[in-house]
Amino acid sequence: MQNYAEVVRDFVEKHATGLTVAFVAGAGLLAVRRWLAGGVCRSKVRLDGKTVLITGANTGIGKETALDMAQRGARVILACRDMTRARIAADEIRQRTGNGNVVVRKLDLASLQSVRDLAKEIRENESRLDILINNAGIMMCPKWKTEDGFEMQLGVNHLGHFLLTNCLLDLLKKSTPSRIVIVSSLAHEKGRIHFDDINLDKEYKREVSYRQSKLANMLFCRELATRLQGTGVTVYSLHPGVIRTELGRHLIPTLSLWKRVLAMPFVMLIKSPWEGAQTTIHCAVDESLAYESGLYYSDCATKTPAPQALDAAAAKRLWDLSASMVGLA
Ligand SMILES: NC(=O)c1ccc[n+]([C@@H]2O[C@H](COP(=O)([O-])OP(=O)(O)OC[C@H]3O[C@@H](n4cnc5c(N)ncnc54)[C@H](OP(=O)(O)O)[C@@H]3O)[C@@H](O)[C@H]2O)c1
Ligand SMILES: *[C@@H]1O[C@H](CO)[C@@H](O)[C@H](O)[C@H]1NC(C)=O
């Protein structure tokens, strides 16, 4: 015992500098990690008696958000395209929260028919809808088309949600104060809306398509907030952070090996799904946001979006175009 302590002391004395450097670097790394983790939703608000619908809630930040809503006592509807994965997620959420009021519903955002069917079912069978969370998303897939012939990323990330939201507005208005949360991304900053070629038929670039769809989320949020002024329904858009989820499923396999190796050190710095869900949860429940609408959030605080996301004329134009594309006009 005595001997062991001496050996340790000896080692520490010999390597004092090295150990100090290692300690400081470790603490620094932890601090950076904590800083990157961003804000945490501190609201303790309960949602007993309220209903929350979340799209794409079987995995990633959607599932974490659903778990949090269930913990707060809400009736939670997981709207998902893969019913097997959805049921597994719902089972897990029920088990971890003790909230039995967690249900799954079929929703494929790449099909307008599926969107209409879900909206009809909700309108017919739900007495209220307090929080709608447009979370589902697809990123940087190949040049794919939805069932209705729309470019896939615009179709799923924007058009499907545009139709779904519009079809649920009456129920949201009956349940005021109610909220609509739109999960966008920092990627909107480099985006533009290709009004002359909205499906990117002329030239498809997967990142151009993703950025356009996330800018469309931002413009939708603003125009929707304008249209809902005075109704008691408020709207929020957000960037959740960079998070370890399945979102990279179409991108990662196409990257060269060296790019993947280079990316490795950064992987430990990106957010966990729990951390990534915090801004969505903040927008969905935090009392301090009750009278804000049409704004953009990141790390549980408001953020100024890119200038093209503040373009009211473009927001109006995109609304009209989207309405005619999904058959609402
Ligand atoms: N992860 C990030 O770093 C990051 C950064 C910025 C923004 N975001 C945004 O955060 C949101 C959630 O992404 P995530 O990171 O949690 O990704 P994820 O783990 O890939 O989850 C995406 C969810 O969307 C669903 N989905 C995809 N296509 C759908 C369709 N056609 N119909 C219905 N649901 C569909 C997926 O269902 P399946 O499992 O059945 O495919 C899944 O449940 C997205 O809007 C994304 O753009 C994420
Ligand atoms: C409403 O619920 C009932 C009973 O579960 C079901 O039979 C009916 O199909 C649902 N309505 C819609 C539009 O799905």
UniProtKB/TrEMBL annotation:
Keyword Transmembrane among record annotations: yes
Keyword vocabulary terms for this entry: Membrane, Oxidoreductase, Transmembrane, Transmembrane helix
InterPro entries according to UniProt: NAD(P)-bd_dom_sf, SDR_fam
Transmembrane segments: 16-36
SUPFAM superfamilies associated with the record: NAD(P)-binding Rossmann-fold domains (SSF51735)
GO molecular function: oxidoreductase activity
Highest taxon above the source species: Eukaryota
Annotated family: Belongs to the short-chain dehydrogenases/reductases (SDR) family.
Name of the featured protein: Retinol dehydrogenase 11
Organism classification: Eukaryota, Metazoa, Chordata, Craniata, Vertebrata
